[in-house]
Amino acid sequence: MSQEKLSERYTIEELVGSGGMCKVYRAIQKDLGRLVALKLLRKELAADVVIRERFLREAGICASLHHPNIVEIYEVDTMGNIPYIAMEFVEGNPLSQLLLDGLKQEKALRLLAEGADALACAHSVGVIHRDFKPDNLVVTDKGLLKVVDWGLSRSMVDKRKLTRTGTVLGTPTYMAPEQVVDGQLSPATDLYALGVILFEILTGRPPFTDKALANLCQS
After folding, report:
1. How many degrees, rounded to 5, is the angle at CA 141 between CA 27 and CA 119?
2. Among 15, 143, 149, 168, which residue's beta carbon has the most beta carbons within 10 A?
3. φ/ψ bin of 183: left (φ > 0), alpha (ψ from -120 to 50), beta (otherwise)
4. pLDDT tens figures, 185-202
């Protein structure tokens, strides 16, 4: 799909996010008048087979999950050689920001329960999120929690390894020790992260700092 073809189908309004791998735009799908988030892999990374496959796998995994607390995928295609995902545009704030703003504990626990329900849905079909953390739990303006950013997710059914040897992916504070040490993954990986967030909600801080966790894993 060319740049012109993409413009025929979507009206790009603004850049809303930019990371090391992707750029995310707020856009309108013209034929349906639907607000979407367009997530494009950075041009300089599109030639990397591992990165490209991981990006496309995110779309495939997300598209297979149907749950009110999981971001919905609308379309997967390419613009030239650059793959993109058109997905539900989630308007709201990450749980991490709401906790800093003083979100009441009772409401935070209710929201976390919604996240746990989303994980249960994913685990039931063999999918592990692998980066479950407050930054990836977005609370909409209507108060509904959405689990986003499945870019590091892993299907236990699909045995392909798309992570280079020696590379640890995730956020150390919320990573299970076995995930850090030797990359072992299971539904317990996400449940550990869930427990860390629960601890953070109840005490105001995570149980370990990144440095302390690293020292624990090396001992």
Report:
1. 90
2. 149
3. left
4. 889 999 999 999 999 999
